Amino acid sequence: MQKVRWGVLGVASIATRKVVPAMQHGEWSTISAIASRDLAKAEAAAKSLGIAKAYGSYDELLADPEIEAIYNPLPNHLHVPWSIKAAEARKHVLCEKPLSMTADEAKSLIAPRDRAGVKIGEAFMVRTHPQWLRTRALIREGRIGELRSILCHFSYFNRDPKNPRNVLEWGGGALLDIGCYPVNISRFISGEEPKRVCALIERDPEFKTDRLTSAILDFPFGQCVFTCGTQLNYFQTMIFVGMKGRINVEIPFNAPNDRPCRVTIDDGRDLFGGGATVETIPKCDQYTVQGDAFSRAIREGGEVPVPLEDAIRNMAVIDALVRSGASGQWEQPRV
Fold this sequence. Notes:
This protein is of the alpha/beta class. It folds into two domains: 4-126 and 288-307, NAD(P)-binding Rossmann-like Domain (Rossmann fold, 3-Layer(aba) Sandwich), CATH 3.40.50; 129-284 and 316-327, Dihydrodipicolinate Reductase, domain 2 (2-Layer Sandwich). The chain is 33% helix and 27% strand. Strands 8-9-10-7-11-12-13-14 form an eight-stranded mixed sheet, covered by helices on one side. α1 packs across α9 (286-300) and α8 (174-190) packs across α10. The protein starts with a strand and ends in an 8-residue tail after the last helix.
């Protein structure tokens, strides 16, 4: 089996610190080239990471006939334009989350994908992590009884005006950056789509991005309630509560790659953990797993972990939350 040859658009921190090094350890993936609008930056990244080719423009990378797939970690507002260009160059695309700024923008990827016959997927690395596959299996086998409630908090502190997460026009703000995770995971675990949603959004007076957003997603199974923020203490948790127990995923999103993860199942017999059992998930790098899953889909012709259609549905929920924050009313996702 020949590994899929990947090219990377840009030298974003998440690419150079996390995703690229992880994919270089994959059984199905190899990073063959990296590009930047600044050739010196591309060359420096290539040298540091042991990548054979460096390009001084994204177009040069897309023109490389040896590159089969593109990883797109550019700022949010550039996700769709460069993913379209990659598809038109007949490259498969793994695009960082959120795939787009809106659901309608995400839909614009369908035609170029289908014309080129390539795969386009969203880089929700959590969706292939063993701790989430195990959590979904536990819930679906009835370990906590009927699932009724999902609770989530995800936050960090960042007020750097130059950071893309704080630039409104570039798709900054808490909801697009981290609120997309509880939306996606609640849909993934339940296998359902929310019927309606509501949100309370507080915006930074200077950046105009949402810095504190709380939401309720009304699903057929029950409700998901989450808060996300960009000017709070760094913290994340996600809890699933059923009629006979609950599951807590200890580090749900930024799962460590140097130690095992823990999933706690509690039958709720008391408030002190008397009915709790802990399942330990062997250590792994979720970015390695994600890259190999996508590459294997390319080689074997299967579906990628988070296909374009799923990304569109996720964005439809986020769009509805934005509308609700403005209207003060319940809003229905529109795919």
